[in-house]
């Protein structure tokens, strides 16, 4: 296709007998994982160029890279750091290369497939595990199956999961948590196995792995690669993996090897023949030396004491490869594949997809499990808001109906609403984590931005309502707000809408700027702006026209503050004290009383507009969510 645009584990943990376990357990349709459609995957002349930041001239990251892998083979992409192997893997997997210019062709069975068709056949395992630490191993596999583009009954899904757990030696860990930063889970090698197995459950024919042994010791690395190879052989899959410096035993597990240095090919062929190739070039491999270590030292010139001589030698090695018989064999093989494409109608078939409702339900279910197990999501926020309620209730403790307490009441209303929304910035890290999972799963074609955004909105509602009830139950009665059940329930409603709007703002900002510090700062800035123009610090009657018409009316805190003010002062009267000197003049001044409606008049607030304000707030929430969806949908 042409484009333009750490834990170690014991190696003896998994007995070799697990290799003979069927993924599908015979009772299940083997076509789900068994590859019967893709016989080969080849690439020709893959070249990637970017604009150099200093010279502003095109700079080649990859130059004319060729290769071909057949069904049942596992191919390693190797080379020194910065050689372009990760870029090549992303190109081969049809992943985003961030504006780089890509040239060359990639052929499945000799056929140039569309991006959509290719995504249906392939899957990509990131170097950083896209796993949710608060889920168990079995739950991770189960949700991967539910989110996949396939329709499986519960029984069939369970049997496939059981088969994969057995094949990857994870049966004993099936009910263990993956693990989070504050809660220990399975080992690093087991995490990598879960990552691969959770992709295989979706039934890919081509599997791409980015540094599958990163962070593992040699024993764990061998276990991971040996299990992947066994699965690939048994199911006739094509596996391409970038790998840094494997041990000798791990290196020998690969069928084919593509060596890169400075973005150019230096070898492509069987791992067993790489020693003979360099021996013929006058660089014999020392006896008992790790072949991977040998070739990497030979091709790495970054630390050579004589750079000019090392560069010349590297260029000679590359020229020698281009002129070698092995290179001619590779070229002939790719040419033959392209000349006689195998037209399999199943390659273009539309894979059955889980419908939008099923995907959203699975995401809500998964998020619910994550939210109640992971205290970072809502547990810490609930504790934080509870502490805030106690502080607020004891600072504004037992306010009375005296006119001297009118301003403290107003201050408490502002503080309760503004600080509740301001502290929603605590949701930023949790959303960014969920967004990262979404980005990785969307890249593998599991679901889109709409399902993610709807599920994210739904799962937050019960927790935000719980926070509103807990906060109000403490702060409302301690402070002495309007002492009626109806007023209390309306207060909860306004606080709940406040939190929903604030969290929606976090989602919108974090979708645009998915960097923790930036999202935190911009969300805090936005909330500071809303506080300034919301109507408390400067009443709407005297607010500067620019700020009033540009921001006041789209500020959700405006309507929260108005609603809480009306809720508090409507129907209440306040005493002018023994001196009968009333701070607010009204018809009740002769009775040494102040009606609450007079306080509302000072701010220009009218009663009877609760429905309108609620409608506007819901519109603001919907607007934030829609904008967040647009950002996620556009940013592929």
TrEMBL record:
<dbReference type="GO" id="GO:0016020">
    <property type="term" value="C:membrane"/>
</dbReference>
<keyword id="KW-0067">ATP-binding</keyword>
<keyword id="KW-0813">Transport</keyword>
<dbReference type="Pfam" id="PF00005">
    <property type="entry name" value="ABC_tran"/>
</dbReference>
<keyword id="KW-1133">Transmembrane helix</keyword>
<dbReference type="Pfam" id="PF01061">
    <property type="entry name" value="ABC2_membrane"/>
</dbReference>
<protein>
    <recommendedName>
        <fullName>ABC transporter domain-containing protein</fullName>
    </recommendedName>
</protein>
<dbReference type="InterPro" id="IPR043926">
    <property type="entry name" value="ABCG_dom"/>
</dbReference>
<keyword id="KW-0547">Nucleotide-binding</keyword>
<dbReference type="InterPro" id="IPR003439">
    <property type="entry name" value="ABC_transporter-like_ATP-bd"/>
</dbReference>
<keyword id="KW-0472">Membrane</keyword>
<dbReference type="InterPro" id="IPR052215">
    <property type="entry name" value="Plant_ABCG"/>
</dbReference>
<feature type="transmembrane region" description="Helical">
    <location>
        <begin position="491"/>
        <end position="509"/>
    </location>
</feature>
<feature type="transmembrane region" description="Helical">
    <location>
        <begin position="449"/>
        <end position="479"/>
    </location>
</feature>
<feature type="domain" description="ABC transporter">
    <location>
        <begin position="33"/>
        <end position="287"/>
    </location>
</feature>
<dbReference type="Pfam" id="PF19055">
    <property type="entry name" value="ABC2_membrane_7"/>
</dbReference>
<dbReference type="GO" id="GO:0005524">
    <property type="term" value="F:ATP binding"/>
</dbReference>
<keyword id="KW-0812">Transmembrane</keyword>
<feature type="transmembrane region" description="Helical">
    <location>
        <begin position="612"/>
        <end position="634"/>
    </location>
</feature>
<dbReference type="InterPro" id="IPR027417">
    <property type="entry name" value="P-loop_NTPase"/>
</dbReference>
<dbReference type="InterPro" id="IPR003593">
    <property type="entry name" value="AAA+_ATPase"/>
</dbReference>
<feature type="transmembrane region" description="Helical">
    <location>
        <begin position="516"/>
        <end position="538"/>
    </location>
</feature>
<dbReference type="GO" id="GO:0140359">
    <property type="term" value="F:ABC-type transporter activity"/>
</dbReference>
<comment type="similarity">
    <text>Belongs to the ABC transporter superfamily. ABCG family. Eye pigment precursor importer (TC 3.A.1.204) subfamily.</text>
</comment>
<dbReference type="GO" id="GO:0016887">
    <property type="term" value="F:ATP hydrolysis activity"/>
</dbReference>
<dbReference type="InterPro" id="IPR013525">
    <property type="entry name" value="ABC2_TM"/>
</dbReference>
<feature type="transmembrane region" description="Helical">
    <location>
        <begin position="409"/>
        <end position="428"/>
    </location>
</feature>
<dbReference type="InterPro" id="IPR017871">
    <property type="entry name" value="ABC_transporter-like_CS"/>
</dbReference>
<feature type="transmembrane region" description="Helical">
    <location>
        <begin position="375"/>
        <end position="397"/>
    </location>
</feature>
